[in-house]
Amino acid sequence: MKTKQLLMIIALLLVVVPVSADQVTFDDAIINGSACIGLDCVNGEVFGFSTLILKENNLRVYFHDTSTTAAFPSTDWQLVANDSSNGGRNRFSIEDVTEGQTPFTVMSGAPTGSLMITGDGLVGLGTSSPITDLHVASGDTPTLRLEQAADLGWAPYAWDIGANEVDFFVRDVTSQTTPVRVENGAIDNSLVISQDGNVTIAGTLSQGSSRHNKQVSPVDASDILQKLQSLDVSRWRYRNDSTESEHLGPMAEDFHRLFGLGVDDKHIAASDVAGVAVTSIQALVSKLDHQAEEMARVNHENEALKARIQRIETLLAE
Shortest CA distance to 247 belongs to which of 259, 256, 239, 255? Predict the structure, then answer.
């Protein structure tokens, strides 16, 4: 009797208290259909064309590498759909769980073609049809930013490279200047830098020369002219110039020593050479003007002397 009662009590407990346990299958599992995993999956789930649905309010797919040998990679990764906190971000991310980093994130609402990699390896940003290795498209001034952060102790700095219907430009974001501009429609080979370092332009080189941007001081033109007379001028060519083109001009060391112009004694600015030439011409013109005045004075005196001689000769002839 006692045995029968005990069996009845055990049977009652098995019915009243449900038992929940992990299911472990020591074999391959094949599902001929679709699968839904998550706390919110329901009976009669609508799969459409989806083979796998993950359905609950905290979606994560964790890749746990159990490798223990030192030579084998063992980083754990995780796919994350949306933040789990209230007011968090709607995003899809790939997380490096081991290092605690999130190297890749796509925010909700990102437009079609935000990132496209074609079968040829072409990368599109803002376009689904890239036609170059890196194709950046935008409805208003597509721009690349090159920014040095302060993470490694260097001073932060940023540059932009952009283009629009007006020009191509390089902008110094930190200093708020735009040092380089190329207007749309510039002709072929407007600026060419050869392998030898030679620079060729297709038009006129105009250097900034506004008085408002300079500290101006007077020049002794006669002193410049005197120094110019002792400046050696040579025919020369660059050693690494494959064209072996010859040039005519002074050496930077001599030019800097005599006139003290330029950033150092290894370079000559074209504007400095022009300045020395113009100043020397002015000094020569001044000397010629002075000589002309002296010649006019001498001629005047000669004419006066000639007139006196003629009068004396007239008196003697009487």
Answer: 239
